[in-house]
Amino acid sequence: MRMNGPYLILYLMAVSIVCLPSLTSCKDRSPTPAKTNRIQLWGNGYWFLLGVNYPWHKYGHDFGAAAWGHDGVSHEKSNKEIDADFAYLKSRGVHVVRWFLFGDCRASPEFDANGNVAGFDEYFYPDLDATLAIAEKHNIYLIPVLLDFHLADKAENVSGVQTGGRSRVITGAGTRKSFLDNALKPLLERYGENRNIIAWDVMNEPEGAMIIPGGKWVDHPVSAAEMQSFVEDVVGYIHTYSSQHATVGSASRRFLHYWTSSKLDFYQYHYYEKMEQHSRLDYPYAKLDLDKPCIVGEFGTKNTRRTMTQCLNTIWKNDYAGALAWSHRAGDEASDFKNVAGEFAAWSNTHETDLSIGPHAQPDLDEWR
């Protein structure tokens, strides 16, 4: 979504196993059979991901401090508000939350005088630890989004904080390597086996920062080849240093072809009604001819002709592997999750009963450790 403009529902297929194996089996990255149209987790289970984009408490500074000070997730006031948000989301049937981590890099990671990534400040890990504690408390699973296309906006100084101006993370060989080794690698080494993180989303709507038809939403877009190379590097690190999945938050179904060589574990595209003419929601997954499952990672909850029930039914009947509503807290013209949360909860509860899951299926937590 442009800034301008879970217990998961772990839906078992009829042939799924009764017991879930250890998370370590996720390191076996043999292709997920496309016929399942579900996300493979914990080895042999195939799941439908139902949830919401949080997607931030405060854009770009939920994790780490900036010159504005520290008000991230571990801050007492923020922590209390986020905990209440997650309690609310759980009560409405949300099982997966997609949450922006670095955004445009205004608070984290840290950059040195040469513009290379130096690591994290003293607040970053406490903020992410606090987030995971809240997620575990409410049995919600996370898809952290590493970066946002706004990192390639024109650099601006806002009260001592640089926003945008970070396209060299993608295009600069040294800067990219510093991001991979000094931010991504330690992040994955610390959290790569965490049971409440199911996947890492490399970038939100990278096409907005690409020089392609329909892209170039920012002042300093990069070539398609540069972005594809960056995504492939990040995915390689995710697969090397974690047992979790990798995905990319593509801005539209028509852009998915840019990522079919990126070795993603599942695809993702975003849908809003303004796209209906060229990328309608009612479109079968099978026609995409993808080698992995695909989720609808964003769809609007405001200024939409379809009801929440109609959106979820459409996504479900077309065999997608998940649906994440946009959004709780973003505050833009497509966000009003609270207004449709009752419908969302009813759909969630109905489908769990229909599939005879009974108590929510979850892995044996001892096997995660």
How are the secondary structure elements laid out?
Layout lengths: L38 E3 L3 E3 L1 E5 L22 H16 L4 E5 L9 E2 L5 E3 L4 H14 L3 E8 L7 E3 L2 E3 L4 H4 L1 H19 L7 E6 L19 H18 L3 E5 L17 E5 L22 E6 L8 H10 L4 E4 L11 H18 L10 H4 L1
Parallel strand pairs: 3-4, 3-14, 4-7, 7-10, 10-11, 12-13
Antiparallel strand pairs: 1-2, 5-6, 8-9
Question: Could you describe the 3D structure shown?
Answer:
The radius of gyration is 19 Å and the shape is globular. It has 8 helices and 14 strands. By secondary structure, it is of the alpha/beta class. It has a single domain (55-364), classed as TIM Barrel (Alpha-Beta Barrel). The two termini are 36 Å apart. The strands form 5 sheets. It has a 6-stranded parallel β-sheet with strand order 11-10-7-4-3-14. A two-stranded antiparallel ribbon has the order 1-2. α1 runs parallel beside α2.
In brief, what are we looking at here?
The protein has 369 residues and is of the alpha/beta class. The protein has one domain: TIM Barrel (Alpha-Beta Barrel).
- Proportion in β-strands: 15-25%
Lateral arrangement of strands in the main beta sheet? 11-10-7-4-3-14
Termini separation (Å)? 36 Å
Highest CATH level, the class: Alpha Beta
* Uncertain runs: 4-35, 353-369
Q: Estimate nothing, just give the exact number of structural domains.
A: 1
Oligomer: single chain
What is the number of strand segments? 14
What is the CATH superfamily label? Glycosidases
In DSSP terms (H or I, runs of 4 or more residues), the helix count works out at 8
Major sheet description: 6 strands, parallel
CATH architecture: Alpha-Beta Barrel
Shape: globular
**CATH fold topology:** TIM Barrel
Give the averaged pLDDT, no decimals.
88
Order of helices and strands: EEEHEEEHEEEHHEHEEEHEHH
